[in-house]
């Protein structure tokens, strides 16, 4: 899968370590989530959120193709509602894209997302 440079840079900057629990808040089609899982050596959990079932199925398919199904947990959920139900996270990753326009801007967040005020 071809990966957009901002996704690769964000995943590398996040520097996920084996055993971490990371949230990808806008996960489809699954490139960021699977890259995060690969960077963790398949040890840990990437919670991959998106709002539609077809997108979730695409994430699950890519994770399976790469042998990362045990590490990538795709969930149909609006990321704006995710903080409470998901509990403690090692890190979260959120990038904003516009279809057709490419990368518009991104925000990389590390640490416990429930302890931060977000202006986005």
Q: What does this 3D model show about the protein?
A:
This protein is of the alpha/beta class. The chain has four helices and five strands; from the N terminus they run αβαβαβαββ. The protein has helices spanning 5-14, 31-39, 53-65, 83-86; strands at residues 21-24, 45-50, 72-76, 91-98, 102-110. Strands 3-2-1-4-5 form a five-stranded mixed sheet, covered by helices on one side. β1, α2 and β2 (45-50) form a beta-alpha-beta unit. The radius of gyration is 13 Å and the shape is globular. Residues 95-120 have low confidence and may be disordered.
Number of strands: 5
Largest sheet: 5 strands, mixed
Low-confidence stretches: 95-120
| Class inferred from helices and paired strands | alpha/beta
Give me the number of helical elements: 4
User: First CA to last CA: what distance?
Assistant: 29 Å
Helix fraction, binned, reads 25-40%
Order of helices and strands: HEHEHEHEE
Mean of pLDDT:
75
Strand percentage lies at: 25-35%
- Write down the overall geometry: globular
Largest sheet: spatial strand order? 3-2-1-4-5
Radius of gyration computed on alpha carbons: 13 Å
What are the defining features of this structure?
120 residues; disordered C terminus; alpha/beta; 27% strand; five-stranded mixed beta sheet
